[in-house]
Design goal:
single chain, cytochrome-c peroxidase activity, globular, oxidoreductase, 12 helices, 7 strands, two-stranded antiparallel ribbon, peroxidase, mainly alpha, transit peptide, binds protoporphyrin IX containing FE
Length: about 350
């Protein structure tokens, strides 16, 4: 990459980050102020241990509500509103802003990876897996090699779950993925609530997520199983504009783009514009750019080696709006795989904190 291209890339990232910070400061203050008000979703007081009440609680949870224990032990179902979900969103966004001492300055990418790995276990034939259940809370799924490092994301969300105990982990993880993508300058991603947490018996077998060392036919095996097509595979892979590989997790190393905390179509432009060569190192086979700053996985390079997929890479490289539109649609589909929504569940378009 020429020096001018590099500085253009950095300038682009800096511009976006600058714009973000200006807006984020005021919204953070607004968030803190609103934090002083009492939430309708404050933790319930657990003042009863009656089995009957727990049964009522389970029934309420199954119906999408949350059973709130009151001092008088009168059963009261808490049904969260759009505003309650926006409060969860704001809480996650606030934590993203505050906890900026992680990785490249944001937990955003690892939250996106958590939501994707929770959802990407779906099998359309058996209708198993998917974000409904949040079974990655349990071993063996949490110990699957593909999920290495995702404890950071799950732990990051624990205080949010403690503050809003009525939300299921399965809803929380996907909502956090949406929040992270929007807060990292991505498109609006409509989100619907309604996932219920499963137990350990619902854990999916190992091997349902893609193997980064493999090529296009493997990607098709994995993503067609979930119900995606070639265009959708390419659009989804654009998430690799974000974050990085870690040697202590996947074994691979480095970021895909120069702005790993801002969602752009840079993953596609770099795939096409860089000269990618094998990195000479002790680790697994991966590719590096001429400047040895960036990386691509064999599964990323497969997208430009495959005749049917490459045109989509070219389209998204040329048109960021087209990428954002298709990316939003395919993320909605991914996060909703296998979720039994109640009829009439309306999507929520969360307001980004920098809007
Ligand atoms: C196409 C098949 C895919 C393969 C083979 C793949 C593989 C990988 C690997 C090996 C890592 C590095 C993990 C680490 O060492 O921390 C990674 C990270 C990541 N992946 Fe993928 N991935 C794929 C698809 C996706 C999809 C569909 C999404 C989201 C829509 C996604 C989002 C991410 C993000 C955001 C990271 C960065 C995480 C971080 O910085 O901690 N990936 N991926």
């Amino acid at each position: 990459m020429s020096a001018s291209t590099i500085s253009r890339q950095f300038a682009r990232a800096a511009l976006r980050t600058g714009a973000r910070n200006t807006f984020a400061t005021s919204s953070r203050q607004a968030f803190r102020q609103s934090g002083r008000r009492a939430y309708s979703s404050e933790p319930p007081k657990q003042s009863s241990s009656s089995p009957l009440l727990y049964i009522a609680a389970a029934a309420a949870a199954a119906a999408g509500g949350y059973y709130a224990f009151t001092q008088s032990s009168t059963p009261k179902v808490f049904v969260p509103t759009k505003d309650d979900y926006q409060k969860v969103y704001n809480e996650i966004a606030g934590r993203l802003e505050e906890k900026d001492d992680y990785d490249d300055g944001s937990y955003g990418p690892v939250l996106v990876r958590l939501a994707w790995h929770a959802s990407g276990t779906y099998d359309k034939e058996t209708k198993t897996g998917g974000s409904n259940g949040a079974t990655m809370r349990f071993a063996p799924e949490s110990d699957h090699g593909a999920n290495a490092g995702l404890k950071h994301a799950r732990d990051f969300l624990e205080p949010v779950k403690a503050k809003f105990p009525w939300i299921t982990y399965s809803d929380l993880w996907t909502l956090a993925g949406v929040c992270a993508l929007q807060e990292m300058q991505g498109p609006v991603i409509p989100w619907r609530p309604g996932r219920a947490d499963g137990d350990v018996a619902a854990c999916t077998p190992d091997g349902r997520l893609p193997d980064a060392s493999k090529g296009a036919s493997h990607l098709r095996d994995i993503f067609y199983r979930m119900g995606f097509n070639d265009q959708e595979i390419v659009a989804l892979a654009g998430a690799h504009a974000l974050g990085r590989c870690h040697t202590d997790r996947s074994g691979f190393d480095g970021p895909w783009t120069f702005s790993p905390t801002v969602l752009t179509n840079d993953y596609f432009t770099l795939l096409l514009s860089e000269k990618w060569s094998y990195r000479k190192w002790d680790g697994p086979q991966q590719f590096q750019d001429k400047g040895k700053t960036l990386m691509m996985l064999p599964a990323d390079i497969a997208l430009i080696q495959d005749k049917a997929m490459k045109p989509w890479v070219q389209k998204y490289a040329a048109d960021n709006d087209a990428f954002f539109k298709d990316f939003s649609a395919v993320i909605v589909k991914l996060f909703e795989l296998g979720v039994p929504f109640k009829e009439g569940t309306e999507p929520i378009a969360f307001k980004p904190t920098n809007a």
